[in-house]
Amino acid sequence: MSGIGREFIEKTKYQHLGKSDQSKGFPQPPLESEYDKTKPVTDLPPPDEIIVPNMDLREAIERRRSIRNYSREPLTMEELSYLLWCTQGVQEVTTGERTQRTVPSGGGRHVFETYLLINNVSDLRPGLYRFLAVDHKLVEIRVAADTADMITEGCLGQPIVKTCAATFIWAAVPYRVTWRYGERGYRYMLLDAGHICQNLYLAAESIGGGVCAVGAFSDDDINRLLNLDGEEQFVIYGATVGKKVKLP
After folding, report:
1. CA-to-CA distance for 210 and 238, rounded, in angstroms?
2. pLDDT digit string, tens, across residues 104-130
3. Is the model's pTM score more than 0.85?
4. Which CATH architecture best describes the domain 38-243?
């Protein structure tokens, strides 16, 4: 085998793994990353109070497409809350400090933090936010006028990052999963990213929305814009979301 990708697959096979930090008795990492308590925090509408149109699962799967053109209709706060709940919603914090969420995760480790570039959401200032999944709130990170331009540039200039209603950006905290599974946890982390994004695609269909996954970005630039060190936390995936253009 040659090449980094093949080497990754080979060296994350079970026969190459040593003892995990969990098996050594090390304490598990926190369920959620710390945030700047001086920053404004916004309550999101409670998930159990949000009403969205019913849609058959098969219909949602059959209609799902990557959408790159969005209408100017904003997402509502209820719709944003719903999409966040469907992609990283915490249903329960269980004994042993684990979370049960609306998406599967290897060993229930849930390594992802959700960042949001808000462009067009009713009653929410445009800017960069982070979803606090355990409390179902948003914390403001940056609302300067050039925020969308900077994130768009970090996504290699893709215009949909700025023309959508919101861009979801998923950053991993790998130790949450490597604590239990060692280097093989990196495999599970990448699988989990797919679970999350597919939930976003399907959930968006029920509110008349569309999604386009984003895998092309400058890792170093996006990590820097989100104040992530690129090692203990780093961006893996993203997706734009907005209302579909209504056909005449």
Report:
1. 14
2. 999 999 999 999 999 999 999 999 999
3. yes
4. 3-Layer(aba) Sandwich (3.40)
